[in-house]
Specification:
Layout (H helix, E strand, L loop, with lengths): L16 E9 L2 E9 L1 H13 L6 H4 L18 E2 L6 E2 L15
Antiparallel strand pairs: 1-2, 3-4
This protein binds zinc ion.
Length: 103
Amino acid sequence: MSNVTAIQPAQQPAPSARFKITVELDGFPVEIEAEGKADSLKTLIERLKTIGAQPPQAKASAKPAGGVPVCPIHNKPMKASQKPGTFFCPRRLDDGSYCREKA
Ligand SMILES: [Zn+2]
């Protein structure tokens, strides 16, 4: 018989996290600070989208967080080329020639 007693931690509520969200609303940068669980963050973002808020970098950057660059001419995601880490636009220009955009 051992004297070691397992210490049962008291049931603790899930820790809340602090979020800082920057959105653009009608072109204005807005900073929102919130505290809560991830669930409430998602609800908050859904609500922000409902009122027309956008992520600030959506228009400014050609490279979204997903890693796939967007063709500035066609505004469509590029395709990964055979060389790793590089992308090309598979679409055609108005004159029928291939788009030369690469990233
Ligand atoms: Zn293109």
